[in-house]
Amino acid sequence: VSASADQRHPEARGDAAVVAVIGVGLIGGSIGLAARERLGAEVRGHDPDRGALEAAARLGVIDVACDALEDALDGADVAFVAAPVGTLPHVVDAVLAHAPPGCVVTDAGSVKRGVVSGRDDERFVGGHPLAGAETAGVEHARADLFDGATWYLTPTEGTSGVLYDRLQRTIAGLGARPTAIDAGEHDLLMATVSHLPHVLANVLVTEAAQALGRAGDGRERLPATGPSFRDATRVAGANTAIWTDIYLANRDALMRRIDDAVTRLGEVRAALERGDASAIAEWNDGAREDRRRLLEVGIAGGPVHELRVSLPNRPGVVAQVALELGRAAVNIEDMALYPAADMTSGVIALFVRGDDDARRAEELVAGLDFPVVRA
Amino acid sequence: VSASADQRHPEARGDAAVVAVIGVGLIGGSIGLAARERLGAEVRGHDPDRGALEAAARLGVIDVACDALEDALDGADVAFVAAPVGTLPHVVDAVLAHAPPGCVVTDAGSVKRGVVSGRDDERFVGGHPLAGAETAGVEHARADLFDGATWYLTPTEGTSGVLYDRLQRTIAGLGARPTAIDAGEHDLLMATVSHLPHVLANVLVTEAAQALGRAGDGRERLPATGPSFRDATRVAGANTAIWTDIYLANRDALMRRIDDAVTRLGEVRAALERGDASAIAEWNDGAREDRRRLLEVGIAGGPVHELRVSLPNRPGVVAQVALELGRAAVNIEDMALYPAADMTSGVIALFVRGDDDARRAEELVAGLDFPVVRA
Q1: Residue A268 in 3-state DSSP?
Q2: pLDDT band at A4, cuts 50/70/90?
Q3: B205 and A294: CB-CB below 8 Å?
Q4: Neighbour tally for A90: CB within 10 Å
Q5: Which residues of B touch A285 (CB under 8 A)?
Q6: Helices B317-327 & B355-367, crossing angle to 10 degrees?
Q7: Is B223's CB within 8 Å of A196's CB?
Q8: Which of A218-232, B164-178, B305-319 has the lowest mean pLDDT?
Q9: ipTM
Q10: Distance between B237 CA and the closest CA of chain A, angstroms
Q11: What are the C-alpha distances in Å from A215 to residues A210, A212, A236?
Q12: Alpha-carbon distance B31 to B24, whole Å?
């Protein structure tokens, strides 16, 4: 635990007084803006693209433009790495090499195993904000980009509880909803709900273009259709530089999802070939029911409950609690960690909205054998 | 050509003074409302579901509720059959058997070959309005349901030009954009831009439910995701009664589309397995370009041009002209047919919006060797 963390802890937000943003595109720039406006932080930026760095300074996205990575990290409490997925492991290593001992380092990549696994520095926590990427570039940065957005964090057993706590509160301060998830589970989830849908959208448009295109007459405009094709293909051909990296970084999980989709298509095809109306009807009813269950929105409102959990002094317990709640889709609205003076144990306060989620959180934490009380 | 058609022709709309609606659900009910409100027609309704028929009368969707099909068709100028796709061939045959000689009969089914092929009555024209089906039932009927919507019509060589002309104008009067298309092309188009997207949406949700579901803990709520999964699966599990019919009625075309999708998925998978970044990038760039071309919206505005086309007196020429323009995505805003007194030839006036589309229409019609002039 660094001097800077101890010094300011436990005042919320105050412990992210200096924020480093490495990579000032849409995401990094929006982090910078939100950190300046909402946390009152001093934001130090670095980007290998000098034009982007200058634009960030000119637009007020960062306070200080640093040509050298070391300068951006000087005195930083939190460092955000917003670099392309393909270069993340390399950039994160460089940041960890130059960041102060008490600085928590996170990234914003859409695939997590590659950057998380084998990187056992207690200061590093993988991250992934689920926020817009359709208009790239610092000129589109907005302080409110993360408002209400889920921001996945992938702590591991090796993660410092104090630093995780600081990162969780910093991200909540940016307006997002930090949610802990295991890196492997995250990548499976994204393969299923994001990467495969992108692949299928691409398949749909290329198939339509070939089936319907009338080469040579110069008028390949699609005949009028309902809105469903537009919706289903909205993400087709997303930013190639970003998505080639994502597809390849998560290719193991994505190939399994593709195989599964092909199997399922084969089953539907067989039912069609048999003219099996009852199989088709059952499959369609099942899909409706699956979607209802998957997308059913929990009751978002309700009072905020504070749970106080006593934690033993051993590595990874904060991550363990956060991951357990993340797995059950119980959102931690806020978090505060109070280490005992002798550091042999500590208490973590978890703020959870809604009676059901609070009860559920209490059960889950108790299930981990940590004493828990409602404050 | 019936007395009733001759008598009122060529006054637009006035030749749909009596409209029969067979099947008064959402679509039939909305046709009834629009025909009453916008065409000033007398609407006679029939439905095997007595409750629906009574509701339609009570809601003012129809003027007259007829228990017998024959009564609904008595004196009708236009008959709309809005029955489930599976029963359409049977119901259309019954309607043709009872409809007056000069009555144009159309349907509203989402698949067209099954009902069009082999049904060579000159009074029948297949139809398919691209308008909402998410809230079924006459109580959701709205006079503006078809405003601006494409309404496909599938005339054949055997279709009466006079009756096609009347139907085209009636449908434009309901607020829709009638567009001629070959029945087989229609079904291929729908397999590609609607039925396959529905299948893929079902596959996505069932796959996600199985990959992410945690059986037993009673909390299968999907972890937070961006909006793309919601968009991509919006049509999953659409009305089973309607969609089982649609999938089966178009199964030949749909199976070919599924096979094509499986082939394309295999290609992407192979590129992922090879770690072939340039193949992935090229595929993704191609998808973006395909989507841009497919969904690029033509300039909708501009002045309306009237083209006058001289037509020989032989069957199917009106359908031929309409299909040629439909194929090129040139929309006919309105149409009027003026048969010569001796019926050896006629002139059709086509109203087309925009300079480009008018020029294109002129070329296409000239290409069919029919004399054409701008009025």
Answers
A1: helix
A2: very low
A3: yes
A4: 11
A5: 237, 240
A6: 130
A7: no
A8: A218-232
A9: 0.80
A10: 4
A11: 9, 9, 21
A12: 9
